[in-house]
């Protein structure tokens, strides 16, 4: 792969120019008929993975009509001023649930590098200074680790996945994917730091895996699969049962 170039500001992955700042008083767009769940992300790479995960966990749900995303509803991007993945996931899910009136699932995630003490961590999306500049973020990270030997290049993807309903039910699950950082990017799939993280036990980077292979082992896959019973319970019951843990998959009509 050639030396990565900084992302264009007009990159479709993160076109933030269209979005107002959360809390600026804009009225939210009403959710379309049939919408049941909001995926509260503006990252198209994440969105694609989340859609696949929801569809796999709930094949009977008409995901096309029932699952909408924050961008398509015109929801503003929440200010991610939490200091943990969990806090930021909750901030995003709460904002989307309040603005749409629907249950919302958000993910906050990032790359935690051992030798950097867990950085970029919650700053992963803006490590180079520009939010969502994936290639610039990757290039900076590789330069910072230029002198680090292979045995010290351990790292992990981390994900907190949050479900928030408009009436205040909240649940968070976590997932990690451990691996080693390559010195050069490899692969065209995925997004973000995928071209440099080689999961433990594999000879490929995450960007060289199919979407299905990545989802099966990824931090996001693990967190979202753990969250899905809670999501399904909320969708089926209309709201979570008071004082009881969400039920596992049940044979109920949508
Ligand atoms: O907040 P939203 O709108 O969901 O989109 P975002 O891209 O800003 O998402 P985060 O705030 O959670 O930041 C996550 C960053 O961590 C990196 N990242 C997270 N998951 C990743 C994955 O599966 N593969 C590669 N990089 C990932 C990537 O740089 C992301 O931009
Ligand atoms: Mg973000």
* Basic shape: globular
Which stretches are poorly predicted, pLDDT < 50 over at least 5 residues?
1-25, 243-254
Helix count equals: 6
Q: What's the CATH class, please?
A: Alpha Beta
Secondary-structure element order, N to C: EHHEHEHEEEHH
Provide the β-strand percentage band.
15-25%
Q: Roughly how many Å apart are the termini?
A: 46 Å
Q: What is the CATH architecture descriptor?
A: Alpha-Beta Complex
Helix content: 25-40%
| Number of domain units | 1
Secondary-structure-derived class: alpha/beta
Binding site for Mg(2+): 108
Region (Disordered): 1-33
GO cellular component, one term: cytosol
Keywords: Hydrolase, Magnesium, Metal-binding, Nucleotide metabolism, Nucleotide-binding
Describe the model.
The chain is of the alpha/beta class and 254 residues long. It contains 6 helices and 6 strands. The model is unreliable at 1-25 and 243-254 (pLDDT under 50). A 6-stranded mixed sheet has the order 2-1-3-4-5-6. Magnesium ion binds next to loops.
Topology at a glance:
Blueprint (H helix, E strand, L loop, with lengths): L36 E3 L4 H14 L5 H4 E3 L15 H16 L3 E10 L20 H11 L9 E11 L5 E12 L15 E3 L11 H7 L1 H19 L17
Parallel strand pairs: 1-2, 1-3
Antiparallel strand pairs: 3-4, 4-5, 5-6
Helix pairs in contact: 1-6, 5-6
The structure holds inosine 5'-triphosphate and magnesium ion.
Magnesium ion binds next to loops.
Tell me briefly what this model is.
By secondary structure, the protein is of the alpha/beta class.
Notable characteristics:
alpha/beta; binds inosine 5'-triphosphate; binds magnesium ion; 17% strand; Maf protein; disordered N terminus; disordered C terminus; 254 residues
